[in-house]
Amino acid sequence: MIILSVNAGSSSLKFTGFEMPSEDVLISGVFERIGIDNSFYTIKVNGEKIKKEVELPNHKVAFEILIKELMDNKIVESLDEIKGVGHRIVQGGAYFDKTVIADEDAVSKIDELASLAPLHNHAAIVGINAAKEVMPNAVQTVVFDTAFHQTMAPCEYMYAVPYAWYKEYGIRKYGAHGTSHKYVSQRMNEILGRNDTKLITCHIGNGASISAVKDGKCVATSMGLTPNAGLIMGSRCGDMDATVGMTPKEMDIVLNKQSGLLGISGVSSDSRDIEEGIKNGNERCILAQEMYVKRIVEYIAKYYVLLGGCDAIVFTAGVGENSISTRKEILNKLAVLGIKVDEEANNVRGEERKITTDDSAVPAYIIPTNEELMIAKDTYSL
Ligand code: ADP
Fold first, then answer.
1. Residue 323 near ligand 1, beta carbon < 6 Å
2. Is the CB of residue 272 below 6 angstroms from any atom belonging to ligand 1?
């Protein structure tokens, strides 16, 4: 059975087609600049990468082209072979604690929650409607980045602000990257061979968050109401004093786009450029990396105490999977917990493996994330 995993942005549409349950990737790619000039798409299929420039007035046309490519490349003979389409949704609020069918009720709730994620939720609805038009017989599902974090207790998700803000406006922590934290924690449990585990999962990409996961359920996460809480990110500040004087508009721009690694270093939001700057003795790159690592260590330490110990620490996403030095610095700073990095094992990028020594009190692993597969698995089970 073929399941499509899709992620619709306001002007883009990313997709991966899986054969399920074997989980084989049949096709993947992205449509870009939808509704703007110079639109194009790139597709990876049958071991080839294709780029085509075409007019993409809307998401419906993008789906139609995708179907044509599936047929031209002999992945499907008829539209009906696509049994499910899973849509990634950024904000599910307190309504959704799991993947559900994208019926009218679900879509209207996603629309209602758009005040919490204006750009993302509206774009996702455009994607759902287009997919329904083009593939009316496929089961459409909605997979939420926030769902995995719905198991947090009030003490964890509430902010210490007037309670009426929560009652009237839903102001609380919802978290992010839930699909990734769910995927890597499930995979970690598979490796450990049991589900009664205490895990700390570190999704460190351009955006970044850390979760504490007990018995497969999220008990705490570093992201908040918006994606600017917790860790220092590529260009977001994460936790900071909320009373720094700025207008909402200034806050949005400065704290989300001009802060983080970029703001401190003045060089880049990309950890590869920071590493390069450190090699060349750039003082501000050195400071940025020290602060970045320190914040991650602080969250791991905090969740270690919250969980009452830890069975494994997981690194995932762009930096977590690829930055050898960042992982090493984090683990070295955790030596007080008996954690010992295995330098040789850690000398790897993007591969699933244990990166601590056998006598390390807590093992740490790299587990490449796969949000697309998680979306397809959830959709397949529905
Ligand atoms: P997003 O949050 O946009 O999904 P990713 O998870 O793809 O981000 O992470 C992208 C980031 O990963 C880049 O900005 C870069 O900082 C980091 N990264 C990617 N490759 C490497 C590498 N080889 N070494 C260090 N950092 C890397």
1. yes
2. yes
